[in-house]
Amino acid sequence: MLNRKSTFTQNIENQKGQVALFVALIFQVLFLFFAMVINVGLLVHHKINLQNSVDLAAYYGAMKQAEGMNTIAHVNYQIRQSWKLLAWRYRMLGSAGDFKEHPFNKFYKNLQGGDEDGINPAKQDFYDAPSFCITYIPFKPMPPAESTCRDIATKSGIKLFDVPQVFIDLPNISGKVRGLSQLLLNNAIDRCQLIGGFNYTLLGGFVVAFNIDQGNRMLLMSYLSRAMSPSSPQDDFFDIDGQSVHDGIEKTLRNNLTSANNTSDLKFQVYNSLGHSNCNSSGVDKGSPAKWLVPIKTIPAFNYIDNNCDSNSIGPQGRMLDSSQGNWPRYSRTAGSPFFEQIKELAPFIGIRNPLSDIYNYSIGVEKNPWCMAYVGVSATSQPKIPFSPFGSITLKARAFYKPFGGRVGPWYYNRWPSGAAGAKGSTGSPDERLDPNLPPRIHDVANVGDPKDPTRAANYSRFVGDKFGLKSRRVMYQYGKSIFGLDPNWKVTNEDSTFTDTLNGQTDFSDGAPNFDHWNHLPFKFADRGASLDILAWNDKQDQPSRMRELELAAVLPDAFDMAYYSIEPDFYHNYYVRLRDGFLKGPGAAFASEKELLGDIGMHRGFNQGGVNYDRFSVKNQFEVVKKSAHLSSTVDFASKLTYISQNWEHALTGWAPINLLNYALDTNKFGKCAARPLGADNNDPRPANPGNCVVGGTTGYSVKMVSSDYLRSNDLNLGGEGVNGPLLNPPPNEEEF
């Protein structure tokens, strides 16, 4: 009988393939989960890549904004230095010849005077508005034993100030004003009649040279700001190399995208906040900057000493330096009289021109509208091809906003800035609320010049935050007065009658030594001519070398405590910005500027001159410090260490920008602030290797840095940007998410 298994037993033995069947069934589910993981992973990867790329693109755009703003900030500071030079020349050179009230003691036995700070209340007018008089020994070529400036204190003051004349049309400029010193060598009565004309033309030359210098710099800032501020936020804008920022943003974006994101389906937008209609350059006057910069037009005033000469007496007389013929020197008002032609040419450039926006009207630079915030937004959408995607292509979107921060274009004129349209004309406040209380009154309308007797109309500036005296300080006058007279080692007063020692046996000193009137022969027009030196400082033309007076002038413009608090100062402007402007911007969007004007460097630049291993074409703020430090004359006559302590003696002190402890701690690192532990390899003047912003690799910084900013912050209606208690929204908020 056969041994047969039951059907039940057979069925059990035949279940060996059921696991494989189960695996086959569940594999589809597992594969689906696997595909989902791959899908989500790739989706996240491409999204992160898109966001990172957009971040970098927006950072690039904001970085280019920061470079432009840093350039503008330093050019604005150059105007501040030019103003300081003018104020110093007016007050220090023009008052040092006084023997009665000036604090520098020129007598051996007279104890009057001193170097205490403040002013002498009994002679308030002299300190408020000294009459400019420079025809005194030791200036050359002055006749021996003669000074016409011994007693100018009683001929000074705001009582001489009047409303200035306004010019509409200007004559052509011939540039032949200088070459005047020979006229002083006539006989005594004739010379008396020349004194007023000489003081007028020399002071007028200083004033007009300042307005040419600041005007050319204002025009450069206008071109720079306009290139950064197109008529629409979506339009292209340009960097200081003259390159398209839009192109740079696109290249940055695409070069960082994955191949799946970087397809023909990629779409991106750029939002330049400075192109907003409330902040761009549309509709502003020709030659004016974009709306986010507001010019600080002022109305200063100057006095000078004229003479009343007759056969019996010679009497000094104070006059306001003015364009109106009634304020011309007494003996220079008719055709054919001494200095008539020179004054006729100078006078229109001393007055105010219509329209007020004319770049050659008096200006202290620009202030930045805080309600026009600089930032760049970038948004992008992509449709990466992702394997196993059940819905086909998926659209990814990323946005980012980055802004320059931490830099300072310069101080506002007043301490508050209204929000909205009310702030279109700039900061507001009372005269007591000026951030620099020593600046001349601001003028928005030539028909309204304010109080013509305002003592702050006399050129001056604050040396530190809260300074009320500026160059009125007796201490400052003493230190520089001593240094001016010390330029001539042969100068000497032997008695209380102020008789000068005649070291040349009655002969006039025609040497090239300082102080010397001829060292300003290139002012007011010649220095800025096409192909000229571009040097506004004193220069010895006969020897073709720097004048020793130049050392005093550089000491006067060095960064001080006020400057370092309110300006972003670039120690090496030439290597970091000048070259890029010259070789890039002025051959592109700034070509019209280059066809009209010369690009000016820092004060002290002298084109085409080399001496002592210093290339004066590349002269920058750091070189200003070097000249003052190396000056044996200044070290022996000016006490910077204990008297003029507001003046910085190290270029590193200008490194007052944002200096964090590290990337995770944004608190101020006091070990870096105002210090530099390592300079770049190319820091030497003749080293061709690249320079570094701030002239420092390890240590403090200067100018604007860049950071991310949220769109919620940019849309806030309660930003505190206009000073204490002044809140409001930006004039240039970002577009809605649906639009951007």
Structure description:
The structure is a single chain. This protein is an alpha+beta fold and 740 residues long. It has one domain (48-728). 29% of the residues lie in helices and 11% in strands. It is built from 14 helices and 21 strands. The chain has a four-stranded antiparallel beta sheet. A three-stranded mixed beta sheet has the order 1-5-6. A hairpin with a 4-residue loop joins strand 11 and strand 12. Helix 4 runs parallel beside helix 6 (340-350) and helix 8 (549-557) packs across helix 12. The protein starts with 6 loop residues before the first helix and ends in a 12-residue tail after the last strand.
Summarize, please:
With 740 residues, this protein is an alpha+beta fold.
What is the molecular shape? elongated
Number of strands: 21
Strand content: 5-15%
Unreliable parts: none
Structural class: alpha+beta
Task: Please write out the topology.
Layout (H helix, E strand, L loop, with lengths): L6 H7 L4 H78 L28 H5 L2 E2 L33 E2 L20 H41 L16 H11 L11 E6 L20 E5 L5 E7 L4 E7 L19 H11 L1 E2 L9 E6 L7 E7 L13 E10 L68 H13 L52 E2 L4 E2 L2 H9 L3 H6 L6 H11 L7 H6 L13 E2 L2 E2 L5 H10 L1 H6 L22 E3 L2 E4 L7 E3 L19 E2 L5 E4 L2 H4 L4 E2 L6 E2 L12
Parallel strand pairs: 1-5, 2-7
Antiparallel strand pairs: 3-9, 4-8, 5-6, 9-10, 10-19, 11-12, 13-14, 15-16, 17-18, 20-21
Helix pairs in contact: 2-4, 2-5, 2-7, 2-8, 4-6, 8-12
Protein name: Tad domain-containing protein
Keywords: Membrane, Transmembrane, Transmembrane helix
InterPro entries: Tad_N
